[in-house]
Amino acid sequence: MPSTKARASSSAPRFAAKAVSAYGVAASTAWSAILCSAMAGSLEVSKAWTPPVSETGGNSPLLMTIRNNGDDADNLLRARCPVANFIEKHTVDRGEGAPAMRSISSIAIPPRQTVTLNGGGLHLMLLQMRQVLAAGERFVCSVSFAKAGPLDVEVVVASQAPGS
Ligand SMILES: [Cu+2]
């Protein structure tokens, strides 16, 4: 897999983004099959996606499915993406009043379990977006786990979860 740096620079020019979008429309039906899943140790990350973003400077959720095929618990510690200045790990609190997002230090990935990051619960949050994102664009993020280490994950921009 090409390095994160190489992917980041290739997705930066706007004209390149348009070309990817046009391709994305044609390929949309086979999309979940094309989407690569990344593995590190006993962890497998798949269906990484983020919704389109029309303005820079704001925040946007980063969602993915993480499968732990091993017998040891792991923890998602941090993520870095070329499209955002910072990334936090969030959970959603549901008490009285409206649901509220809260930053947490890590996201536990229990053994033999699948953790789905989604906007209604645990998720990553892209903060201070550096560029707009159109449906069909792709970029690579580095997601780091306590035991499995860093993992390059390809993220696709889409208005709903892959395969939904
Ligand atoms: Cu959030």
From the N-terminal CA to the C-terminal CA, the straight-line distance is 26 Å
Write out the CATH superfamily name: PCu(A)C copper chaperone
Mean pLDDT: 83
- Name every ligand kind in the structure: copper (II) ion
| CATH topological fold name | Immunoglobulin-like
| Overall form | globular
Tally the structural domains: 1
Which structural class best describes the helix and strand composition? alpha+beta
Model regions low in confidence, pLDDT < 50 over at least 5 residues:
1-34
**What CATH architecture label applies?**
Sandwich
Helix tally equals 3
Helix content: 10-25%
For the largest beta-sheet, the strand count, sense and barrel status come to: 11 strands, mixed
- Indicate the radius of gyration in whole angstroms: 15 Å
The share of residues in extended strands comes to: 35-45%
Q: How many beta-strand elements?
A: 11
CATH class: Mainly Beta
Write up this protein:
The chain has a single domain (4-157), classed as Immunoglobulin-like, CATH 2.60.40.1890. The chain is 16% helix and 44% strand. The protein has helices spanning 4-11, 14-27, 31-34, and strands at residues 38-40, 43-50, 60-68, 74-80, 84-93, 100-104, 107-109, 114-116, 123-129, 138-145, 149-157. The two termini are 26 Å apart. The model is unreliable at 1-34 (pLDDT under 50). Bound molecules: copper (II) ion. Copper (II) ion is lined by residues 61, 90, 101, 123, 125.
